[in-house]
TrEMBL record:
The keyword DNA-binding applies. Keywords: DNA-binding, Transcription, Transcription regulation. Residues 9-69 form the HTH tetR-type domain. One of its GO terms (molecular function) is DNA binding. InterPro entries: Homeodomain-like_sf, HTH_TetR, Tet_transcr_reg_TetR-rel_C_sf. Pfam families: TetR_N (PF00440). This is TetR family transcriptional regulator. It comes from Ancylobacter dichloromethanicus. Residues 32-51 bind DNA.
Length: 201
């Protein structure tokens, strides 16, 4: 039976949503099209009616995953308007985020995979990372121009690296220490930047 354009678009979005989670859990090459489509309740035969290639789906699922992550950052920030950076640090460097692969940060889960893919996939990551950096730059404050951007890059690198390392080890205590050390470092660095920017009395 022929599906309507509306239903076809709903099916396409469902596949993108499922792929954004399954790719984070298994990696881009760790799951095949048959299992991806089954996860969305469809057959593999429907795939090529919706996407040009698996690379096309990888790019779109990456974009969706990064948009979702950006939404979680924004929601955390809104929940603590007095200190949005601390809210995001607490969220990102939590044990819960470390344990949650399929809903976690795609930069950590798929960054190394993205580096081996084409320009469209890397472009999806670049756009999402720029959004992260823009948020961080707005919260860091106390610095100008290039210093804000540099500080935001350092903060994002510290946080993503800490989650990556925390996930990579068996030792639970070491995992927690990576997360805590990164949180302490980020908050210390940003507090120092803000203090330097305050006018002297």
């Amino acid at each position: 039976m022929r599906v309507s354009r509306t239903q076809a678009e709903e099916n396409r979005q469902a596949v993108i949503n499922v792929a954004s989670r399954l790719f984070r859990e298994h990696g881009f090459d760790g799951i095949g099209l048959k299992d991806l489509m089954a996860g969305a309740g469809m057959t593999q035969g429907a795939f090529y009616k919706q996407f040009e290639s698996k690379e096309d789906l990888v790019a779109q699922a990456s974009r969706r995953a990064l948009q979702e992550a950006f939404g979680r950052w924004s929601a955390a920030a809104v929940s603590r308007p007095d200190d949005p950076l601390a809210a995001v640090v607490d969220l990102y460097l939590s044990e819960a985020h470390c344990a949650e692969r399929s809903e976690g940060c795609p930069v950590v889960a798929l960054g190394s995979d993205a580096a081996r893919h084409g320009a469209d996939v890397r472009g999806s990551f670049e756009a999402g990372i720029k959004e992260y950096l823009a948020l961080l730059g707005g919260w860091i404050g106390g610095a100008d121009g290039g210093e804000v951007e540099s500080k935001a890059m350092a903060v994002l690198s510290t946080m993503a690296g800490a989650v990556l390392l925390a996930r990579a080890v068996n030792d639970e205590q070491m995992s927690k220490q990576f997360l805590q050390a990164a949180a302490d470092s980020v908050m210390t660095q940003t507090a120092a930047t803000a203090a330097r920017a305050k006018p002297r009395q």
